[in-house]
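Weekly sync, protein design subgroup
Attendees: M.S., D.O., the rotation student, P.L. (late)

Item 1: inverse folding check
M.S. brought a backbone from last month's batch and wanted to see whether the design step gives back something sensible before we order anything. D.O. pointed out we never logged the input encoding, so this time it goes straight into the notes. C-alpha cells as presented (124 positions):
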C-alpha cells in the first residue's frame, strides 16, 4: 500500500466500482420486472491480497453493492460472479464465466447471490 499513489488507487476504484455503479444506476430503469443484473467481482474479495490492495477493496465493494441492489431494486434480481485467473490450458475461463452468467440470468430464484468461479482459490 505504501507504494500505491492516491491517483492509482482512485483510478482502480473508478474502473472497478464506479463504472459498475453507473451502469446499474442508469440501466436499472430499463430492465423489465423480474429481469436481472449480473456483476463481475473477483476472488480477492474473499481472499485479500495486499499486492493488489485497491482491487481487493473495489471487488469487495462490488459484492456489497450487489447485495444492496438486490434488496433495493427488487423484483429486479442482482447477482455477482466472482472469478480468479485460472490455468487456461485446463479450462476455458470465458466459457466458464458465460455459463455462470447464463445460469444467474435465467434462474428466477437467484438474487443477491455470489457465484465463485475460482478453481478453489478461496477455499480456506
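Designed sequence read out in the meeting:
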Amino acid at each position: 500500500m505504501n507504494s500505491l499513489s492516491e491517483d492509482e488507487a482512485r483510478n482502480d476504484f473508478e474502473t472497478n466500482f464506479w463504472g459498475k455503479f453507473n451502469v446499474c444506476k442508469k440501466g436499472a430503469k430499463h430492465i423489465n420486472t423480474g429481469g436481472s443484473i449480473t456483476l463481475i467481482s473477483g476472488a480477492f474479495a474473499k481472499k485479500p491480497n495486499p499486492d493488489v490492495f485497491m482491487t481487493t477493496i473495489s471487488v469487495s465493494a462490488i459484492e456489497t453493492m450487489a447485495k444492496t441492489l438486490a434488496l433495493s431494486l427488487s423484483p429486479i434480481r442482482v447477482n455477482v460472479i466472482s472469478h480468479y485467473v485460472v490455468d487456461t490450458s485446463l479450462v476455458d475461463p470465458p466459457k466458464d464465466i458465460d455459463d455462470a452468467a447464463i445460469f444467474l440470468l435465467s434462474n428466477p430464484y437467484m438474487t443477491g447471490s455470489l457465484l465463485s468461479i475460482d478453481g478453489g482459490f478461496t477455499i480456506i
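Discussion: The mean pLDDT is 91. Residues 6-117 form a domain with the Rossmann fold fold (CATH 3.40.50.720).
Action: P.L. to compare against the previous round before Friday.
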